[in-house]
Specification:
single chain, mainly alpha, 0% strand
């Protein structure tokens, strides 16, 4: 099977998953009530939530710089813009290639090796996964323990465990892999790429980098939970505070699944399943998910536009093109 055909099948499957999830979420829902809930929230809620998402992207950029620790330093402005570009790609493009585009653009803009960039983003995902799993486990204490959520949590824990073990083993052999990479040949190229990919994990041995990384993760989690609560307040619902932590965990777990751009459908179904446990009506839950997605799209577009105006179309588009040439 050709890579292009395989990619097309993955994209088609993801869109189908999103479509089925959206149809399931909307089953029996009153569309007029969904529109009314979004109207209650209004543009003020969307604007504030979008500004919060801009702040979340800034924290991601700050943490990414701490993780990457590229020798010459990754400028904050570049990191911020590249994070926004990655978010926008995930929100709008089939296959959600945001992380691959981030790695390609940071290589084109700052000459960071592709393997090192991908390794830093893989580590970022593992850290986010740990926060999501902790939030999900905390929500279990609040009564959210459906079979579907448990299955996603178990799957997420398995993926995180494999990732941590893989990073740990490769990091412990980093110097040997780097030495093997100096010998040349295909095996040497693979060894060098792995050594570069795990270098960001090695930076966590530095106390300052570790503290910045963990503090950034806590700030990101708190900001996203606050963003969800703000949207809920705008819609006019106020379940127990743990409901927003549970929703954050569920949205994070569903992002592990293949789906449509912007997580359309899977986010709606997760919101209906989780918030329903706290007495939130289906229509309000769907509206909360939709506003959350819209605020992320607006926030990512704003940061990307700023980045393009700052760096120029040629630099940004050249980095995106590099993603497809890699």
């Amino acid at each position: 099977m050709s890579p292009r055909l395989r990619s097309a099948l993955v994209v088609t499957f993801g869109i189908a998953v999103g479509g089925v999830a959206l149809a399931t979420a909307l089953a029996g829902a009153d569309v007029d009530a969904i529109v009314a809930a979004m109207t209650r929230a209004g543009w003020v809620t969307i604007a504030i939530a979008a500004l919060l998402h801009v702040a979340i992207q800034a924290i991601y950029a700050w943490r990414w710089r701490a993780i990457l620790r590229w020798p010459s330093g990754l400028p904050f402005g570049s990191a911020f813009g590249i994070v926004g570009l990655g978010y926008l790609a995930n929100q709008t493009l089939p296959g959600r290639p945001g992380e691959l585009i981030r790695a390609a653009v940071v290589r084109a803009r700052c000459h960071v090796e592709l393997a090192r960039g991908i390794g830093s983003l893989a580590l970022e995902k593992l850290l986010d996964g740990g926060a999501i799993l902790l939030a999900t486990l905390a929500s279990f204490a609040g009564g959210v323990a459906s079979d579907g959520v448990r299955a996603l949590a178990i799957g997420g824990a398995a993926v995180a465990t494999v990732g941590v073990l893989g990073f740990g083993v490769a990091a412990s052999r980093r110097r040997a892999l780097a030495a093997r990479g100096a010998t040349g040949g295909l095996i040497g190229l693979i060894a060098r790429s792995i050594a570069l990919a795990v270098e960001p994990a090695a930076t966590l041995r530095i106390r300052r980098a570790l503290v910045a990384t963990l503090a950034g993760g806590v700030a990101i989690t708190a900001a996203i939970v606050g963003q969800l609560a703000l949207i809920g307040y705008g819609v006019g619902v106020g379940p127990a505070p743990i409901a927003w932590l549970a929703l954050y965990g569920a949205l994070g777990l569903t992002s592990l699944l293949p789906g449509a751009p912007g997580y359309i459908g899977t986010y709606q179904l997760a919101a209906v399943a989780i918030l329903g446990h706290y007495g939130v009506e289906r229509e309000n839950a769907i509206a909360i998910a939709a506003i959350y997605q819209l605020s992320r799209l607006v926030g990512a577009f704003a940061v990307t536009l700023w980045f393009v105006l700052r760096e120029g179309f040629r630099t940004v588009l050249g980095g995106i093109g590099a993603r497809f040439d890699s």
